[in-house]
Specification:
561 residues; 0% strand; mainly alpha; globular
Length: 561
């Protein structure tokens, strides 16, 4: 899935111009669909407790509008404009549901309605920094464009299928139908789709975690109640953060290979030292450090607006601000890494970990509620923007010269998402009171508040620290490219029924299909080409399954209403 190194262009030829996010037709469609996405997000998060990925819906609507033979509407036939629209609608959905409404529901459920608006301000800061950091560090060694990002592949393949048709469209369409029908029968077909798309080792650990999480209660052991997955995530998360810090180093000899990997045509030389990545170690380091600084500044704003300043001593206030800043960036990185490899992000569980840490530190109720809300505002938008950048990267990989087109396209996607975030903010600001007054509060927010009020059972932290040891060891063995510890903990935390069998079954099918295609091929180069074709075929199937499942998730709106 590397960008095409064969695209050539004269050295002095001007780069192709990428469509702009603020072109009138694109902007109007972006705003309209972002309103729809935000409404879908807040309805489903408050009624069913889920937030669907609406990227495929946005892509399909943009494609249909592009087929209308009316003047400027035909401009939407461009796959890059469709990519901008799908980026905005998916961004508005996750921003409204996860990054804005859920955080403000925490003080509301606590009975402190006066803190809703201050918390909304903090959530806006968290959302803004969240997306800014991902924009700065996407396609680095930590979060490479070559990573799985399953929902991004689904969106890109949907757009490409509508653009080209043919065999690929047929395979994708069949996969989408299977995914949709399976989801109707309560089967997590998106899990099977992910199994065709990601790193085999990471997904194997994810599948094992899902399976163990599903069947452990049958043997009389409550993993969640004993905080086993949370302990594993603490250990794996600490090691993952250490690995991320090591990736920020600049190797001697200059750079980390990204510059050396650029071909003469401006596109990447995929045989280069760093695979043609656009973000090098110094940029990764700056992006994460800037994010940490901005999150701390946001925590200061929340502390002042929420009245934390008057309720804590100066040392306690400084500690609260630092903990909030660290929690925000750790939360976004763990959620982002899990989403990149598995398509799931354990935002609720990782936020719960910091809630438990707050209880252990005896943080008072109101400051703890604001800490939880601020932490919860980060992560989902970070992961969603990664999906959208992955989709754009796939759609732009045949451009020449590649690098300037890719960088400009990514910038336009970021601007489109900012439009989606702005729309989400307006929708949430207008609608939250009506939803909350009607008793429609996100279930996860109620869990947070219940945990804050009831406190911890004795020995909880000790148990979590003990389970952190195997989590750390698994993550250390797997290394930063596989994230095995994080994925094992993610599987245990989400524990969706039958999802483990779907993932593991897809991995078996993947291996068998690859071996079947290799049969009778002795030449090493021919075997490599056969494996690549097998990967392409299975990626289409996986993308179709994810797309079909996403369509079903959006269709749950009728049930919610």
């Amino acid at each position: 899935m590397n960008p095409n190194p064969q695209a050539t262009v004269a050295a002095d030829a001007p780069p192709r111009s990428h469509p702009r996010a603020f072109e009138p037709v694109t902007l109007v469609l972006t705003i309209v669909l972002s309103v729809l996405g935000a409404l879908i997000g807040i309805v489903l998060i408050t009624t069913l407790g889920v937030s669907p990925n609406t990227a495929v819906i946005g892509a399909l609507v943009a494609m249909l509008i592009g087929r209308i033979p009316v003047g400027v509407l035909t401009r939407m036939r461009s796959k890059h404009r469709q990519n901008l629209v799908q980026s905005a609608i998916s961004g508005s959905t996750f921003a409204a549901a996860n990054s804005l409404l859920t955080p403000i529901a925490v003080p509301f459920a606590l009975g402190r309605h006066d803190l809703v608006w201050p918390m909304l301000g903090g959530a806006v800061i968290g959302l803004a920094v969240d997306s800014w950091v991902l924009y700065r560090v996407f396609d680095s060694k930590l979060l490479p464009a070559t990573g799985s990002w399953p929902a991004g592949i689904a969106a890109a393949e949907t757009i490409k299928a509508g653009d080209t048709g043919g065999r690929k469209a047929a395979i994708l369409g069949v996969g989408a139908v299977v995914g949709f029908v399976g989801a109707l029968f309560k089967l997590p077909t998106s899990a099977a789709g992910v199994g065709f798309l990601g790193n085999i080792w990471a997904l194997a650990m994810f599948g094992i975690g899902l399976t163990v999480g599903q069947y452990a209660p049958d043997f009389g052991f409550d993993l969640g109640g004993n905080h086993v997955p949370h302990g594993l995530m603490i250990g794996a998360g600490l090691v993952a953060l250490t690995q991320a810090l090591l990736l920020m180093r600049t190797r001697k000899g200059g750079g980390d290979g990204a510059d050396r990997a650029e071909g003469a045509d401006g596109g990447p030389d995929v045989d280069g030292a760093d695979g043609g990545r656009t973000v090098q170690a110094p940029q990764l380091r700056r992006g994460l450090l800037e994010g940490m600084g901005l999150f701390v500044c946001g925590a200061v704003v929340v502390a002042i607006a929420g009245g934390v300043v008057g309720g804590l001593s100066l040392p306690a206030l400084v500690g609260w601000v630092l903990l909030a800043g660290v929690a925000a960036i750790v939360h976004q990185l763990i959620v982002g890494l899990a989403a990149m490899h598995s398509g799931w992000f354990p935002a609720f569980a990782v936020t719960l970990i910091f809630l438990i840490i707050g209880l252990v530190l005896h943080i008072p109720t109101v400051p703890l509620a604001l800490l939880v809300g601020y932490t919860a505002s980060t992560g989902p938008a970070f992961a969603d923007l990664g999906y959208d950048f992955k989709a754009g990267w796939l759609l732009r990989r045949d451009a020449a010269p590649w690098r300037p087109f890719e960088i400009e396209g990514r910038r336009q996607q970021y601007l489109a998402q900012l439009v989606g975030f702005g729309v989400a903010l307006v929708v949430v600001a207008v609608a939250w009171k009506a939803f909350f007054s009607d008793g429609k509060v996100p279930p996860v927010a109620e869990v947070y508040v219940t945990t804050i009020k009831t406190g911890l059972e004795p020995g909880t932290m000790t148990t979590m620290l003990l389970w952190a040891i195997p989590g750390a060891l698994v993550q250390l063995v797997g290394g930063p490219s596989r994230q095995m510890g994080v994925l094992l903990a993610t599987g245990l935390l989400v524990a969706t029924p039958q999802a483990g069998w779907m993932v593991l079954g897809a991995l078996v099918v993947r291996q068998l299909y690859t071996m079947w295609r290799r049969r009778g091929i002795a030449d090493a180069r021919a075997r490599k080409e056969s494996d690549e074709q097998a990967e392409n075929d299975l990626s289409l199937v996986g993308a179709g399954l994810v797309a079909g499942s996403s369509l079903n998730d959006v269709g749950q709106l009728t049930k919610a209403l």
